[in-house]
Write a structure and sequence with these properties.
The complex is a heterotrimer of chains A (about 180), B (about 800) and C (about 325).
Chain A (H helix, E strand, L loop, with lengths): L11 E7 L2 E7 L5 H8 L18 E4 L2 E4 L12 E3 L13 H9 L8 H14 L5 H7 L11 H14 L11 E2 L4
Parallel strand pairs in A: 1-5
Antiparallel strand pairs in A: 1-2, 3-4, 3-5
Helix pairs in contact in A: 2-5
Chain B lengths: L18 E8 L2 E8 L22 H5 L15 E7 L5 E7 L1 H5 L3 E5 L1 H4 L3 E4 L3 E4 L11 E7 L2 H10 L1 E6 L6 H4 L14 E3 L11 E5 L2 H7 L2 E9 L11 E7 L2 E6 L4 H12 L6 E4 L15 H13 L3 E4 L2 H4 L8 E9 L5 E11 L14 H5 L6 E8 L14 H19 L3 H7 L17 H12 L1 H5 L9 E14 L6 E7 L4 E5 L8 H13 L6 E5 L16 H28 L6 E4 L2 E4 L2 E7 H6 L5 E7 L10 E13 L5 E11 L6 H20 L17 H4 L10 E6 L17 H4 L1 H13 L10 H12 L3
Parallel strand pairs in B: 3-16, 14-15, 18-19, 22-23, 29-30
Antiparallel strand pairs in B: 1-2, 3-8, 4-9, 5-8, 6-7, 10-19, 11-19, 12-17, 13-14, 13-16, 17-18, 20-28, 21-22, 21-27, 24-25, 25-26, 28-29
Helix pairs in contact in B: 11-12, 11-21, 15-16, 18-21
Chain C lengths: L4 E3 L4 H10 L3 E4 L3 H8 L7 E4 L9 E4 L3 E5 L4 H6 L1 H6 L1 H8 L4 H4 L4 H6 L5 H4 L39 H7 L3 E6 L2 E6 H4 L18 E7 L10 E10 L10 E10 L2 E10 L6 E2 L1 H7 L6 H11 L11 H18 L7
Parallel strand pairs in C: 1-3, 2-3
Antiparallel strand pairs in C: 4-5, 5-8, 6-7, 6-8, 9-10, 10-11, 11-12
Helix pairs in contact in C: 5-9, 11-12, 12-13
Chain lengths: ~180, ~800, ~325
């Protein structure tokens, strides 16, 4: 088992659609999509948290579905569509409603888990424009956050969903009761 | 805003050079520092920006992926470094063969213990540790380090390094290590020392004693003897520990995921004898710390050395598995004997704690779990003994609310147990033992809002009503409520310096050394600066946590960031404002004392329509810039500065499966003035969630037979997911006035975690009658507990 | 992760031939389990044979006459959401839903879920050369065994980690595997093997073989008005998501006029294989199920349990789950809870 094998050296070369643009990249074939994105394409918005599929910080969209880029081989992106946090912004650099509400509500604290949450939430809202709190919690259950306690994240998803439905929802004022204001 | 600016007197020359002593309480450690006297600023009576839910100023950077973390730093020609770690919990290394590794493609260098032995790490928080060792004392201890051009090459090369071990006996259980039966002798005088920051001597516990226990127990109507245990908790920051080091000639730049760039700078400078101006440490964005990133890590030093050796930038970011072999909150065993009168007054408390602190002296600083026992409740006769016991495990470190979190698990359950026994409301029991004076320092608390926390929390939670609710005996779902309270430091203190620079267009640069570890430091500092200058937050750009461009401040630990750096920022902004008002006074034809600054205008206080725009005043600056300096002044003498809080929770338990679900939390905290309700509530909600993990699922476990950790992954360690965190958390600030610093705030980073786990345990007892005395409360403990109660399932 | 060759076969036949001709070739489907094992250094494949690019392996087909057919490459997300599965095979959609996390279910396949390797922390940790990896010792026996087997253990005491397997066995599923010598089918229950048979493996796949399909036969009188079929999957874990079962129970039951006409009870998380409970089934057959009978069925199923020291709680937990699942399946309400 432990014996080293002679393996022919090669570089994989794939073409795929990255954040809406055609993209070609060559990389060592053992690399995961996470490594290809961060190291070969210099898109470090996608974070590495455990590299074993246990935390969700590396979540990206593959053909529109959230997957853990640390458990997807770079080779598997061939011919497919990959969306990272760098591709979330709308035309003219406007923030996506989810990005806006995550920023406004403080759903990003240390911010390290944020890109994974954003992309997972993006797909949730694409298939379910008005999710319940329980549906949001279920959809995001693969993304660990050690700072927020998740509630702010739910609120941000709910508010973004309302904005995307064209509703005029406002940023809810943080309820810290007992404050004299 | 400041209405009585005119009461401020300009500082006469030389007076700002005066110093006095000030006490600072950091993570329970009280230090006295020489402190520059700072002219007092009037209390903010009415604020415009402070106290508002201002969105985080760095939110957009974080939601776009633009924010660069240490692990994102990629430099041309960068090498990757990986450590070879001990496979055994205790061994002597007879030989290390590195030839194969050196011959492996892409490998640049291997460092061995002999290459690094003259560099000894040591600072008040890291303790003294060898960088690499030939006698590893715990599984995962660093033996060698290898650097290669790719991560894969480095990993492969690390595997090719052959280490010949001579296994040595090891001990993991502190209760064995303490005795003669221990197969390992850590020191000739014994295998334990005192825990905490006080005077410690090997073979002796650290002791706090007051009054006479015998007298106290004689006075008691009831005596309770109980033992509680806590398991080690790991920080599990979403960003693991890591460093990237790059030399440019003799100038070193280090990107470090840290809570304090200056501590890292000092340590590097000391260990390698480098002038501090050649050591630049940058920690602007970092993915969580919770105490684990207080100073430099071994990987910091190894990356710096490796970069020097190879002449290339070196990145050393730990794997998640390695991260789990690092620091943690130590385990504790807490034996209590408590005497109580029928009316609930405590007459005597004896507490003996055993804390497993790993294989090095450094861990013993965190080996106490009695601070709350000493302080929380009025009791004349108290004796606590903390033993920090050495074991063949990694040394622990600070973790969010160190010592108090462990202590609260035992003490706050004990209070609940006593209340049940005396048939008394647990709040009533706590209030009967309330105390206004710090019983350890004999100093009065500057402010104590605990009674207010009980009152407001109980009211909002509907405690009286919920406490009396009964469960349906036929249902397999049981509901219960519980509460607990807490004390923490959080008063902050000097030294902290801030710089506020006004540019000629009226824009402002705020330079503060404080780290933003996710708490919102950048945001609240901007608010303080904006409030004082009378401008909008978006006019301010904050630069923080970079030793080359920002001034010194204490690290972001001990819940001290806001109360340490915040006042310095206000002072700096005030200094800048005074200078600008001096200039504006000429233009407006009045004396500077007659002017105010608010809403972007500088105006005559008595005649607000006589005004000029802030940027117009800035545009007239002859030097085209203006620099305000601010310092954190001393804390008030003879007072203890503490934050308090009470938490209430409701749980649902499935007695068939043993699963516990936390339905609701109400948290009432006394942390002085809330600078930003968003960030305040975030700290509380996040703390409660981390506390829920401590209560229900998190546990570091080392295999008893081999000394190898088996929970070294996020899967096995089990931090709470979205489906485990409390569904509903209400956060209240009791807003008790606090005047010990010029912003009126104390810290809230750690307090929210302290009361959480015992509140949950108390609710579990209320629901089921099962008193779970060791965390985490996993399904098996509920099932076993119910079974021993007599088969209630 | 070590380097390897990556091979996209043109056909299933080419995949199985390659797998059987190269001893260090491994099949990769979703890759969740495999890449995890490779990253942990448990296995080091020289070649990965990718099934993802093969057509027609990810179908889900249902008809009243033929029952349910699921291609091995169907993702767990697709299975959990499939309307026919939710309606007729609740136990399977619940089991699929209970696996790991949404992102993993988007990638993880049914075949992978059935063939995943054990999650025992000694097995997953490269520091332990355990019996399961060809070593000499099962470290759980005298070690940290709270998650290990209470039934069917020895000489290794892993528990089978699959949630879908107990669910499918409760439905009487068959599995089809393809190899260099063609296809063969067997009851899914017979697919899994105890460590006494081979401590290194958990199933009967031979060199070059891959799982291609799972077939759930139709119920005999699904249309009859007096009869009802219900199934349920209950899983206890220590976290709300990304956790394996401390114990789980899959129960599938046909009732006629309130009487249990046929029932299969399968436990997960307690044995090296999905653990069929004939005692529970016998207890219930032909009877109206009430609290006492369900409790008796649960107790009877665990009579043979041999806890290792830190997993005693599983005995009571598993019995409770059987009891609850039986009551849920026999409840008079029309839809399973």
């Amino acid at each position: 088992m432990k014996q080293r094998r002679k393996i022919r050296k090669q570089k994989a070369h794939i073409a795929f659609v990255l954040n809406g643009e055609p993209c070609e990249v060559a990389f060592a074939p053992h690399k995961t999509l996470l490594e290809v994105l961060r190291e070969d394409l210099n898109l470090t918005g996608t974070k590495h948290g455990c590299e074993l599929g246990e935390c969700g910080t590396c979540a990206v969209l593959l053909d529109g579905k959230p997957v853990l880029s640390c458990l997807v081989l770079g080779l598997d992106a061939e011919g497919r569509e990959v969306t990272t946090v760098e591709g979330m912004q709308l035309p003219e650099g406007r923030l996506h409603p989810l990005q806006e509400t995550f920023a406004d509500l403080g759903a990003a604290q240390c911010g390290y888990c944020t890109p994974g949450f954003l992309l997972t939430a993006l797909e949730l809202l694409a298939k379910n424009p008005k999710p319940t709190r329980e549906e949001i919690a279920q959809a995001l259950s693969g993304n660990l956050c050690r700072c927020t306690g998740y509630i702010k994240i739910y609120e941000a998803v709910e508010l973004a969903a309302a904005h995307m439905r064209g509703e005029k929802a406002e940023v809810a004022e943080e309820v810290v009761y007992g404050l004299k204001s | 805003m400041i209405d009585d600016e005119k009461t401020q007197k300009p500082i006469p020359p030389g007076q700002d050079q005066e110093y006095e002593e000030s006490e600072v309480n950091i993570e329970g450690r009280r230090v006295t520092v020489r402190t520059r006297k700072v002219p007092p600023l009037p209390d903010w009576t009415k604020t415009e920006i402070v106290g508002q839910p201002v969105p985080r100023v760095d939110g957009v950077d974080k939601v776009t992926g633009r924010a660069k973390y240490t692990s994102d730093v990629q430099l041309p020609h960068m090498l990757y470094a990986i450590a070879v770690r001990s496979e055994l919990p205790h061994a002597r290394i007879k030989n290390i063969s590195i030839e194969k590794a050196l011959a492996h493609p892409g490998v640049h260098a291997v460092l061995l213990p002999k290459d690094v032995e003259r560099y000894i790490m040591g600072n008040p928080f890291a303790g003294t540790l060898p960088l690499l060792t030939l006698e590893p004392k715990y599984t995962g201890e660093e033996i060698a380090v290898v650097a290669a051009e790719t991560e894969l090459q480095a990993e492969d090369a690390a595997r090719l390094i052959q280490v010949d071990y001579e296994p040595l006996p090891f001990v993991l259980d502190p209760e064995v290590s303490m005795t003669d039966k221990s197969p390992v002798k850590f020191f000739p005088e014994g295998n334990f020392t005192g825990g905490g920051f006080g005077q410690r001597k090997i073979g002796q516990p650290s002791v706090h004693t007051r009054g006479d226990l015998d007298v106290g127990f004689k006075e008691a109507d009831h005596i309770f003897e109980e033992t509680f245990r806590t398991e080690p908790q790991q920080h599990a920051c979403m960003e693991v520990h890591g460093t990237t080091a790059s030399w440019d000639g003799d100038h070193l730049t280090v990107w470090e995921s840290t809570q304090g760039v200056f501590g890292v700078q000092e340590e590097i400078s000391r260990v390698f004898t480098l002038p501090m101006n050649d050591v630049r440490v940058i920690g602007t964005h970092m993915g969580g710390g919770f105490g684990s990133k207080g100073g430099a890590g071994k990987q910091t030093m190894l990356a710096v050395l490796m970069a020097r050796r190879t002449g290339r930038p070196v990145k050393m970011v730990l794997s998640r598995h390695e991260d789990f072999m690092g620091v943690y909150r130590p385990a504790s065993i807490q034996h209590y004997k408590v005497g109580v009168k029928n009316d609930g007054r405590l007459t005597a408390i004896e507490m003996k704690s055993v804390n497993a602190v790993g294989a090095y002296m450094s861990g013993s600083m965190w080996g106490n779990s009695s601070p709350m026992t000493q302080q929380m409740y009025a009791c004349a006769n108290v004796r606590t003994e903390d033993r920090a016991v050495f074991t063949n495990t990694p040394p622990p470190g600070a973790m969010r609310g160190p010592s108090n979190v462990q202590n609260a698990w035992g003490l706050e359950q004990l209070m609940d147990l006593i209340a049940h026994k005396l048939n008394m409301d647990p709040i009533e029991l706590r209030m009967r033992n309330d105390v206004k004076v710090d019983q350890v320092t004999h100093q009065p608390y500057h402010s104590k809002g605990l009674a207010e926390c009980f009152k407001l929390g109980a009211e909002k939670f509907h405690w009286d009503e919920k406490r009396l609710r009964r469960n349906d005996p036929a249902s397999t779902k049981k509901y219960g409520v519980g509460m607990a309270s807490q004390i923490w430091g959080g008063g902050g203190g000097p030294p902290a310096t801030a710089i506020v620079k006004i540019n000629q267009d009226g824009s402002i640069n705020l330079l503060t050394g404080a780290a933003d570890i996710g708490t919102g430091t950048r945001t609240v500092m901007s608010q303080i600066c904006a409030e004082e200058l009378g401008v909008a937050v978006d006019r301010i750009h904050v630069t923080n946590a970079d030793t080359e461009t920002t001034p010194y401040t204490l690290p972001s630990y001990g819940s001290i960031t806001l109360a340490s750096s915040g006042p310095a920022v206000r002072s700096a902004a005030n200094d800048a404002k005074r200078q600008l008002l001096d200039l504006a006074a000429g233009s407006l034809g009045v004396k500077p004392e007659e002017l105010s600054s608010k809403d972007g205008f500088i105006f005559v206080t008595a005649q607000p329509d006589k005004r000029m725009k802030f940027e117009a005043a800035a545009g007239a600056m002859p030097e085209r810039t203006l620099v305000g300096r601010g310092y954190r002044g001393p804390n008030p003498k003879g007072q203890s500065l503490n934050a308090f809080g009470a938490q209430f929770c409701e749980v649902e338990i499935d007695i068939h499966s043993g699963e516990v679900k936390v339905l609701k939390f109400v948290a009432a905290h006394d942390s002085g003035r809330v600078i930003n309700p968003h960030t305040f509530a975030s700290q509380v909600k996040g703390g409660i969630t981390m506390g829920t993990g401590y209560a229900l699922s998190e546990r570091r476990l080392i295999d008893k037979n081999t000394g190898v950790p088996v929970t070294a992954s996020l899967l096995e360690y089990r931090p709470p997911t979205s489906l485990d965190a409390p569904v509903d958390i209400e956060v209240y600030s009791v807003d008790v006035p606090y005047t010990a610093n010029n912003i009126g705030a104390k810290g809230v980073g750690e307090p929210p975690l302290i009361a959480t786990a015992p509140a949950i345990a108390n609710a579990v007892y209320h629901a089921t009658g099962v008193r779970v005395k060791s965390n985490p409360i996993t399904p098996e403990k509920i099932i076993d507990g119910l079974k021993s109660l007599g088969g209630r399932t | 992760m070590r380097n390897f060759q990556h091979f996209n076969p043109a056909s299933l036949a080419q995949a199985t031939t390659t797998l059987s001709s190269k001893p260090d070739a491994w099949v990769i489907a979703g890759g969740i389990d495999l890449l995890g094992e490779m990253k942990n250094g448990i296995i080091q494949p020289g070649t990965l044979v990718n099934l993802k690019t093969l057509p027609n392996l990810d179908y889900i087909k249902f008809s009243e006459s033929d029952g349910l057919r699921i291609g091995a490459m169907a993702t767990l997300a697709k299975i959990e959401a499939h309307p026919d599965i939710r309606k007729h095979f609740t136990v399977l959609s619940q089991a699929a839903h209970s696996v790991a996390t949404p992102q993993i279910r988007n990638v993880g396949t049914l075949g992978g879920n059935l063939c995943q390797r054990p999650r025992c922390w000694y097995y997953r940790n490269p520091a332990f050369h355990c019996l399961k990896k060809g070593g000499k010792e099962c470290f759980s026996v005298s070690g940290e065994n709270k998650y290990n087997a209470i039934l069917g253990g020895g000489p290794v005491f892993i528990v089978h980690p699959s949630d879908c397997a107990p669910a499918l066995i409760s439905l009487g599923a068959e599995v089809t595997v393809a190899g260099p010598r063609g296809k063969r089918s067997m009851p899914l229950e017979k697919f899994f093997i105890l460590p006494t048979e081979n401590p290194l493996r958990e199933n009967r796949l031979q060199a070059g073989e891959v799982v291609t399909e799972v077939h759930v036969p139709p119920f005999h009188d699904a249309g009859s008005s007096s009869s009802a079929h219900r199934s349920v999957y209950l899983k206890v874990k220590e976290r709300g998501a990304w956790d394996f079962a401390l114990a789980s129970a899959a129960v599938s039951m046909e009732t006629n006029a309130g009487m249990c006409r046929s029932v299969r009870v399968v436990l997960g998380g307690v044995a090296p294989i999905p653990w069929r409970c004939p005692q529970a089934e016998k207890t219930c057959m032909g009877k109206q199920i009430d609290e006492a009978l369900a409790a008796e069925a649960g107790k009877a199923s665990l009579a043979q349990a041999v806890p290792l020291g830190k997993n005693d709680y599983k005995v009571e937990m598993a019995a409770n789950l059987i009891k609850r699942a039986l009551l849920m399946c026999s409840a008079s309400s029309a839809s399973p809870r």
